[in-house]
């Protein structure tokens, strides 16, 4: 066909808005031409610089191109099939040193009980004397109150980090004597002490007890939950703050929850990528952070650092065994070396039979009783399973389930595999 008529036909079948994108001959300027076409007829488009490179992949035979494709697939395939990598926030991996809660304890008296309090105990008498003394009352020497509507209790609370005077915290009240129930009682004002012996709070209020205990005259009783422990929501007021020193210390330290050098190094790199020269690793747990002085600037930087994401190191292979309950926990990193596992039950049977020997008729013999015992030993359900090297957690569990292993037997098998060197994991027995 004449090129002129061919160009006119192309013009008739294309919308006007597409005509401006066509060059001579009705072709797009960025079209890719195949190599079998005459080079003189190739359109000079966007693909021309790529096609002009002297690449063996583009110019070689089809067999070579296929081999290169297979090689690339072999290299990229494992990366695509690998499990997803989960990044975690820095605040989920550790915490700043000194920014933590503190435990408080105290001793006091719960009053208002309906005859379910302590008997005449010495420590209750001492508690009552102390409480009465704070109220300006004096108990005569040698006089015991002997109250059944009061109970000596131990008070515990947790003081959060940065708690300020005037704030309120929850307290737990537990009976330490022979009190049957704290239901309906009220805690008299009692101080809460820290580990340094200083008073950090004052507790007082009505108890919320979730347990219930009732008894009858014949000695029968019924107890639901624990009636000798109660809580007082916001029952203690903070009287002293704990100094953290985060706004004045030259170097702040950040500690990992679980020691790992690789994770510590990755956290350091993540921090230094945003704040160069800020973090350095001291050991497998601690990072030293050199932050600018000033509470406001440090607070902003600490908040930003805690929100950084880091890919933690793979969890080390570990098996935790509770020999008392038969509980076994195996993480996903556990592997098995080539091993053969044999499991069976040795069943001992002892049958006792009493044989009675009767004498013949008209004989002067006597009836004789002779016991007969039969002892047998049989091995039932014996199995042998072979595990190839590198078996994962799923293979280990499937193999042990195939053998019908119970919790107690599983503990023994895992210990034997560890001693044989086939279990590639740290084993912790509780």
TrEMBL record:
One of its GO terms (cellular component) is bacterial-type flagellum basal body, distal rod, P ring. InterPro entries: Flag_FlgI (IPR001782). Residues 1-27 are annotated as: Disordered. The keyword Signal applies. Its main location: other. It is found in: Bacterial flagellum basal body. One of its GO terms (molecular function) is structural molecule activity. Keywords: Bacterial flagellum, Cell projection, Cilium, Flagellum, Periplasm, Signal. GO terms for biological process: bacterial-type flagellum-dependent cell motility. The keyword Repeat does not apply. PANTHER family: FLAGELLAR P-RING PERIPLASMIC PROTEIN FLGI, FLAGELLAR P-RING PROTEIN. The basal body constitutes a major portion of the flagellar organelle and consists of four rings (L,P,S, and M) mounted on a central rod. Assembles around the rod to form the L-ring and probably protects the motor/basal body from shearing forces during rotation. Belongs to the FlgI family. This is Flagellar P-ring protein. It comes from Novosphingobium flavum. The lineage of its organism: Bacteria, Pseudomonadati, Pseudomonadota, Alphaproteobacteria, Sphingomonadales.
């Amino acid at each position: 066909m004449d090129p002129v008529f061919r160009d006119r036909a192309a013009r008739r079948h294309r919308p006007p808005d597409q005509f401006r994108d066509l060059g001579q001959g009705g072709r797009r300027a960025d079209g890719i031409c195949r190599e079998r076409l005459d080079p003189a007829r190739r359109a000079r488009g966007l693909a021309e610089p790529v096609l002009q490179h002297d690449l063996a992949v583009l110019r070689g035979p089809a067999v070579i191109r296929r081999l290169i494709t297979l090689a690339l697939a072999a290299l990229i395939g494992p990366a695509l099939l690998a499990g997803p990598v989960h990044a975690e926030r820095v605040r989920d991996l550790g915490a700043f040193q000194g920014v933590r809660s503190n435990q408080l304890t105290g001793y006091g008296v719960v009053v208002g009980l309906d005859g379910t309090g302590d008997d005449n105990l010495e420590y209750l008498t001492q508690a009552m004397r102390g409480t009465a003394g704070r109220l300006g009352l004096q108990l005569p020497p040698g006089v015991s109150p002997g109250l059944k509507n009061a109970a000596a209790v131990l008070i515990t609370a947790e003081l959060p980090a940065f708690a300020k005077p005037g704030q309120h915290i929850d307290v737990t009240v537990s009976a330490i004597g022979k009190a049957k129930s704290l239901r309906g009682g009220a805690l008299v004002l009692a101080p809460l002490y820290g580990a340094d012996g200083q008073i950090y709070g004052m507790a007082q209020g009505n108890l919320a007890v979730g347990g219930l205990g009732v008894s009858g005259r014949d000695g029968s009783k019924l107890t639901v939950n624990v009636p000798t422990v109660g809580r007082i929501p916001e029952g203690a007021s903070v009287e002293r703050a704990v100094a953290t020193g985060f706004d004045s210390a030259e170097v702040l330290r950040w500690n990992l929850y679980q020691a790992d050098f690789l994770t510590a190094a990755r956290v350091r790199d993540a921090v230094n990528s945003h704040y160069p020269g800020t973090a350095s690793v001291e050991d497998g747990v601690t990072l030293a952070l050199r932050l600018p002085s000033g509470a406001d600037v440090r607070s902003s930087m600490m908040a930003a650092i805690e929100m950084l994401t880091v890919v933690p190191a793979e969890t080390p292979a570990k098996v935790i065994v509770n020999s008392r309950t038969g509980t076994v926990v195996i993480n996903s990193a556990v592997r098995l070396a080539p091993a053969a596992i044999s499991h069976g039950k040795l069943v001992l049977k002892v049958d006792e039979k009493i044989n009675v020997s009767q004498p013949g008729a008209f004989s002067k013999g006597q009836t004789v009783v002779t016991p007969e015992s039969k002892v047998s030993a049989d091995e039932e359900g014996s199995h042998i399973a072979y595990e190839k090297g590198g078996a994962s957690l799923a293979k280990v569990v499937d193999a042990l389930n195939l053998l019908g292993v119970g919790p107690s037997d599983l503990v023994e098998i895992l210990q034997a595999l560890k001693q044989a060197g086939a279990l590639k994991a740290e084993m912790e027995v509780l």
